[in-house]
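Page 47, continued from p. 46.
Same chain as before, 63 aa.
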Amino acid sequence: MMNILIIALILFFAGIALLAAGSINYQIRAFYHKKAWNGLTKPYLFAGVPASLLGLLLIFINF
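Result:
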């Protein structure tokens, strides 16, 4: 039971970190007047949202 909680927390924080990396990438690309949604912004978003939502769901199930 505790192992699932640890995995859920790791998954949640990894998703949050991916979303933060995507946000930083978006801001850097916008600062340099490039198309902000190109590059790695979308892959970070597509990986970060499901990871954080799945981690959050697992956390709520365990409590």
